[in-house]
Specification:
The protein is an alpha/beta fold. It has 13 helices and ten strands.
Length: 398
């Protein structure tokens, strides 16, 4: 019988995790499976913490369970834990000044990535079969890459966000982390709102400008992987996707994200004089200073980026790029000034799907410099199912 894990060897769970599992329906496609969720999903009768103990203390118990969680319970899966996330989700590192830092089961010296860090650690450590996280600027894709997992950031709006704490609503998505490709597809399809009829992927565009900016170990892994998979891949073309403008794309993403936080998370932080951890505190201060004019300028950049990417990504086409440009940082890196370059470089790889509202999957493809690494595929709007099918096909070859 499923139960709450008696041990947490990778420090994946928050102190206020479940005392007993919430059992799924007796019959369903996910019967007998277990899952955990990031500390931002509403669960009836329980508080949500958002990675911050002051928020948890002040929060009222939820009146209803988030539809994404309820759908999994209705499908037969049982909820067995609540996982640590970066404080208020404002990081891609995978650490929390209040709750600690989950351990990367696949590379113990290195971070898991974040902000869905505990969810990734729990799946990689086989504490559960799959986990839910959120992805605003890479919070599923980055830990999927660093922990050797499959991760989905869906088309914006395709997975129900009700009962999920908002961060930057025009970017926020709910997605899945799993170690098994077939299960990854099954769970993700269940959450997606659509009939699943999709054009298969027939053309790949390798983002050579993004690849060229990666660390040597990541660059080499991309070329080795594509070479090894060449006989089974559709037509692969090489092209620059953003060029030097990627810097302005990343800046536009960060500006819009920060401006939207002024209406979601900042009011609680400000009204309650919350003691934020290092790095998170500084980013909230920057967000507070973003003007409406700054945000409007960034939105114009966003419109240009979205139009550009959607013109490229017609049904049947996907962009290929490394999920992250670097291997995971070592665990002792502080979430402060020395972390800024890593975060900036990472956002330049992850901002595209968010700006255009497009689906992206990260597929584990091996190791770069001894650490797990992922290859990402960005699809067309609504092309989530095609990406999931493609991931399953690749899993037989990698």
């Amino acid at each position: 019988m499923l139960g709450i894990p008696k041990h947490d060897p990778v420090h994946a769970l928050v102190p206020h995790t479940l005392e007993e599992p919430i059992m799924g329906a007796e019959a369903g496609p996910l019967g007998g499976r277990s899952f955990m969720v990031k500390d931002l999903f509403a669960i009836a009768g329980r508080k949500t913490g958002n990675g911050n103990p002051e928020f948890y203390a002040a929060a009222p118990p939820a009146k209803a369970t988030a539809p994404a969680v309820a759908a999994l319970l209705d499908a037969g899966a049982s909820l067995t834990g609540i996982t640590i996330c970066d404080e208020f989700f404002y990081s891609v590192l995978g650490t929390n000044a209040h709750y600690g830092q989950p351990v990367n089961p696949r590379a113990g010296r290195y971070v898991t990535g974040g902000s869905s860090c505990g969810s990734a650690a729990a799946v990689a450590a086989q504490m559960c079969d799959f986990a839910l996280g959120s992805d605003t600027g890479g919070s599923i894709r980055v830990p999927a890459s660093f922990c050797g997992l499959y991760g989905l950031r869906p088309t914006h709006g395709r997975v129900d966000m009700n009962g999920v704490t908002p961060m930057a609503p025009s970017f926020d998505t709910v997605g899945v982390l799993a170690a098994d490709a077939e299960l990854f597809r099954t769970v993700s399809r269940l959450l997606l709102q659509g009939d699943g009829r999709e054009t298969p992927i027939e053309r790949l565009i390798l983002a050579t400008d993004i690849v060229s900016e990666c660390e040597a170990s990541v660059d080499q892994l991309v070329w080795r992987t594509l070479d090894a998979l060449a006989p089974a891949l559709p037509d692969v073309q090489h092209a620059e996707i953003a060029g030097e403008t990627i810097v302005s794309w990343r800046a536009a993403f960060a500006t819009i994200q920060g401006f939207e936080i002024q209406s979601t998370l900042l009011p609680f932080v400000r009204d309650n004089n919350v003691e934020l951890g290092p790095g998170i505190k500084e980013r909230f201060e920057i967000a507070a200073g973003i003007s409406p004019e700054d945000a409007e300028d960034a939105r114009r950049v966003r419109q240009t980026v979205a139009a550009h990417l959607k013109s490229i990504l017609q049904p049947g086409t996907a962009i290929v790029l490394p999920t992250t440009p670097t291997q995971p940082p070592e665990r002792n890196i502080p979430d402060g000034a020395s972390f800024a370059e890593y975060r900036t470089r990472t956002l330049q790889n992850t901002c595209m799907a968010g700006l255009a509202g497009l689906p992206q999957i990260s597929v584990p493809v091996g190791e770069a410099a001894g650490c797990p690494a992922g290859l990402s595929f960005i699809g067309w709007e609504g092309g989530d199912e095609a990406l999931l099918d493609f991931a399953v096909g690749l899993s037989d070859l990698i």
